[in-house]
Amino acid sequence: MGIIRKTGHRISLKQIASGFGAAVFLFALPVMCLAEPNMAATLMQDSPLLMKKAGIPGLSIAVIHNNAIQWTHEFGVADKEKNTPVTAQTLFSAASLSKPVFAYIVLQLSDEGKIDLDTPLFQYWPNEITDDPRLKSITARIVLSHRTGFPDWRPHGGQLKIHFQPGERFSYSGEGYVYLQKVIEYIEKKPLADSAQDRVFGPLQMVHSTFFSHTVPETAKGYDDTGAPHDPFESTGNAAYSLQTTAEDYALFLKAVLDGKGLKPATLRMMESPQSTLTMLCTYCTDQPPAPPSSTLFWGLGWGIERIGGHSYLWHWGDNIFYKAFVAMDLQHHDAMVYFTNSQNGLAIAPSLLKETLGINPLSLKWLGYTMLTP
């Protein structure tokens, strides 16, 4: 059952719909919250319809309002063949929603003086991952804002190349995050999965989250755009894409970010400030010519940034082929939404969910270039 969470109360949708429950709810909450039951009821009604239209077997979603986890729910199945329902404990591949969590860890280390964001990484970890001398100008700040010049991923078995001067411009890169991960693991003397447990999952009570991708019974099976099943893939902990989590767990992380928990105020402001300016021509821009910069789309430290109507939103998408995810946060109102799916078509429903939960139609969705349903 989906729930509304507000000032410690747990109110079911059935209670909201009943006369007495609705009356108590109306008197208990301020006027600004009266729309919340309508939002939850609409999502309960519309989400299964959107999933059916997009061919999405399973969905897990969480909504934050005024910095409180207001509503969570699970829809559909984690395994169509076994008819296993998605539950609050079902793990989804977070894909690139891993990156903001890793950035949070790096920024904590910066606050502790263990890494300087503007010191070349080779000074911490001298291993040569490429023979290009420009490697020695890459810093943690450049990695977190996707300005390394690396491709997203090198060809299988191929050599890692730097395509432009690091720091020059934006080009989304998973390779950069893996490079920084190796540096952090060298500094911390332990694998990323352990650092994440010690610094994020443990303190925030994210009990259903791990950076080590191993198949467990609670992991949702992925499905391609034809509906064919694909088993979850296994990998060692990878900062760019290997986080497995639930919507409610990830909402705990979002709440920590909105609270400013775990980071110095100046570091939090830096994370939320533009470091790179995007263009509408490309996401992976290693071989693209210079293009006019966007006036509203940027990248911070670990997060995309979009300016909408005077508000700043942090956002990110996740794409591990058969798993798709999206997250957005309104920094002014301390509202957020995150969802995970086990489908190659999972981003098709992002416009509808963002419109219903945050009231926005972000340009970042167009920038991503996926086929999406019109809300």
Automatic annotation (TrEMBL):
This is Beta-lactamase. SUPFAM superfamilies: beta-lactamase/transpeptidase-like. Residues 50-346 form the Beta-lactamase-related domain. Gene3D superfamilies: DD-peptidase/beta-lactamase superfamily (3.40.710.10). It comes from the Bacteria. It holds the Pfam family Beta-lactamase. InterPro entries: AmpC-like, Beta-lactam-related, Beta-lactam/transpept-like. Signal peptide: none annotated. It comes from Acetobacter senegalensis.
